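User: ok so my PI wants both of these folded by tonight, can you help

Assistant: No problem, let's get them done. Here's the first:
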Amino acid sequence: MDKIEKGFIINSFHGAASIYADATKKLGLWQSEKYAFEKYLNREDAILDIGCGTGRTTFALYKKGFQNLTGIDLTPAMLNEADKIAHEYNLDIPFILGDATDLPFNDSSFDKAIFAFNGLMQIPQRKNRTLALKEINRILKPEGLFIFTTHDRDKNENYLNFWEQEEMIWCVGKQDERLYEFGDIFTSGKTPQEDTYLHIPTKLEVLECLEEARFTVIEDFYRSELFQENDDVIAFSSDCRFWIVQK
């Protein structure tokens, strides 16, 4: 059985592109995102929206006056939808096909970067997620900021029994052979035909990766502890930890 690779991730999102496009038009920014972006982004900043998908965060930021934006995503179908929405809104935003582990930009190209909706944790293997963090560090200007989200394996009490069972499965080597590390799971995708790969880290794991990539944590918070998101946001996304880190 083949391990999860980049092609699996692309295929997972290909069929759901239209669903994400609808969410882009309907949801806009979460309350938690509004807080983080308004606090840490300046309107004159050059901002890279990594894993931009169909442009939910990109378009919402543009409309709030953050107009020096570039979106990048791994999935062509998602970018096609983003381009359609940009044309519909008559907005001139570059959307680029690319991989977070090998960003097609020069060193120190951006003031800020974001990676919304736990996208960093949909990169298979810790070494590759750390590589993506190093790439993001590289393309940021000195003291540049990076805002992203992850799940937190130790935070959600509703899943403690699940992770205890998972640990026993991994200890005896009976996990899904396509996965790499404890914390890797398949979740239901946005379409019935597709499952989605996701890594659920601990806070310590994320801190270790950030240290290796030479980032300093400025702030982190668990979404539900500070914000009550609306029903549409909760239905579309699960709880997560926000990270604001500096090069």
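One down. Here's the second:
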Amino acid sequence: MMGIRAWLAPRAAGPARGDVPRVRRACLLAWGAAAVLWELASPASAGPLLPRLATCAAFLLLATGAALSIRQGLLGELRRTQEIAGAAQRVLLRPLPPRMDGLALASAQVSASRGASVGGDLYDAVPTAYGVRVVIGDVRGHGLPALAAAAAVLGSFREAAYDEPTLGGVLRRMERALGRHLRDRSRAEHPAACPAEPDSPAAEEFVTVLLLEIDADGCLRALNCGHPWPYRLRGPALDGPGRAEPLTGAETLPPLGVLPLPDRLPPQLRSRLGPGDSLFLHTDGAADARDRDGRYFPLRGALKSAADTACTPAGLVADVHAALLRHTGGRLADDVALLVVRNDRRLVPAQPNGQAVCRAASPHGT
């Protein structure tokens, strides 16, 4: 996906925002140097050396004061921008509860943009009458445009997850919400090229999405639109170490925004999340991360190691996150989102109807 992003990314026009402070400082230094040279070399300023040096010192102090004032203003503006971005990110990616209908949850998100907390990754989980529904996705690009697209997709998911009886219905609602957002943005950016719906061209934007549904007895269903499949983790057993198995086998649809969804969706992935099993969901920033020598991050190996030692979903996320930062030296080329869902429901003995059922374990394990 990184290759597609690089191909579709618009070329920057004009100086970068980070170059503006450097230009201002260079202008101030040039002005101060010109003033000092004029004072020392101008015939009109001939006279005792000491007053001329004092005048030069005054010019330099004035230039230094102006530079410090500009710097303080820029730092204040940066702090305000970071606070706004952080607040927007917290509203968009609201913290997940540690427990939800017998499932334990943990998540983490890291932006690739230096000094920014806003990224293009999205995730959420909601308890519904059809089971716990989970979404994770990745918007092409970074910054505020990606944040707006993620907000449109997440807002639609949070509404449709409660109303739609099938995952296919949820996915179609998300596609329509993204299409409206892209058309509105295209009309705002290029009004002459966007006369009316439905002929208005959409912006060059797409979102990979993985939708999951885990019902009360651990049955797992999934629809995938161009997103990495999750891993199912099982802790160490008597016969060997922990295991990390990728969940695959179902057809993957194109990302939302690339092609319209077909009239007939392919069969969903069907599996099972047994008591004690975990699902590890991630965006492609984790699998595509490289070190200085260009080697990819060994995600599956890191998951196996973490499954042997981590006792909680939060510990698993922290171990994988730390391994990722060690591998890349702290320099990420893409946003990364990690999400772990563990089935803490325990299987109780067969009931009078002859069926075993899963029951959510209490926080104290009783």
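DSSP finds eight helices and 13 strands in the chain. The radius of gyration is 27 Å. Good luck tonight!
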